[in-house]
């Protein structure tokens, strides 16, 4: 038995209005997406100390942020010292297998107590990391003042 086919290929013009409406709705959603979603988190003020001419490192790095309260953050998450030590040991071992030495970069605010930094350095040493760098930002050069010459 054969069925009659009534479907035909559309050969007319497309209406632009439905496509424009959907396009503008998607545009509105994408524009306001970042402003509508609340991102929870803890404020860590990183007012890094200023320094010029300090060497960097060519080694693979792991970055740890330290809050004023002494809380440690690794990979954008709050972390306890024992867990951080385990992760740093694993990273140091991976780097050692590749023939490199892991460097720990510490993002610490000016107001972080020195004993917190020493405790973190000791933790890094126990994890097998030999090099620790404290992140700094370059000093801003003063802008030259322009004086207008009087005619």
Note the topology.
Elements: H1 16-36, E1 61-66, E2 72-74, E3 77-79, H2 81-97, E4 103-108, H3 114-126, E5 131-134
Parallel strand pairs: 1-4, 4-5
Antiparallel strand pairs: 1-2, 2-3
Q: Largest sheet, described in full?
A: 5 strands, mixed
**Straight-line N-to-C gap:** 102 Å
Total helices: the number is 3
What's the count of strands?
5
CATH topological fold name of the domain at 61-134: Nucleotidyltransferase, domain 5
Order of helices and strands: HEEEHEHE
Please tell me what the overall shape is.
Answer: elongated
Strand ordering within the main sheet: 3-2-1-4-5
> Which CATH class of the domain at 61-134 applies here?
Alpha Beta
Share of residues in helices? 25-40%
* CA-based gyration radius: 28 Å
Indicate the mean pLDDT.
Answer: 82
Structural class: alpha/beta
Can you describe what's shown?
- The chain has 151 residues and is of the alpha/beta class.
- The chain has a domain at 61-134: Nucleotidyltransferase, domain 5 (2-Layer Sandwich), CATH 3.30.420.
- It has three helices and five strands, in the order αβββαβαβ.
- It has helices at 16-36, 81-97, 114-126; strands spanning 61-66, 72-74, 77-79, 103-108, 131-134.
- Helix 2 crosses helix 3.
- The longest helix is centred in the N-terminal third of the chain and has 21 residues, at 16-36.
- The protein is elongated, with a radius of gyration of 28 Å.
- 12% of the residues are buried.
- The mean pLDDT is 82.
């Amino acid at each position: 038995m054969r069925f009659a086919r009534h479907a035909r290929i559309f050969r007319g013009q497309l209406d632009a209005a439905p496509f424009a409406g959907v396009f503008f709705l998607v545009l509105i959603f994408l524009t306001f997406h970042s402003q509508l979603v609340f991102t929870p988190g803890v404020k860590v003020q990183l007012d890094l100390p200023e320094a010029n001419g300090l060497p960097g490192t060519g080694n693979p790095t792991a970055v740890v942020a330290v809050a004023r309260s002494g809380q440690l953050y690794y990979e954008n998450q709050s972390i306890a010292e024992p867990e951080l030590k385990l992760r740093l040991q694993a990273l140091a071992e991976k780097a050692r297998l590749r023939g490199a030495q892991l460097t720990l970069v510490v993002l610490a605010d000016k107001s972080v107590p020195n004993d917190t930094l020493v405790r973190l350095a000791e933790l890094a040493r126990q994890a097998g990391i030999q090099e620790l760098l404290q992140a700094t930002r370059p000093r801003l050069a003063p802008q030259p003042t322009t004086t207008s010459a009087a005619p």
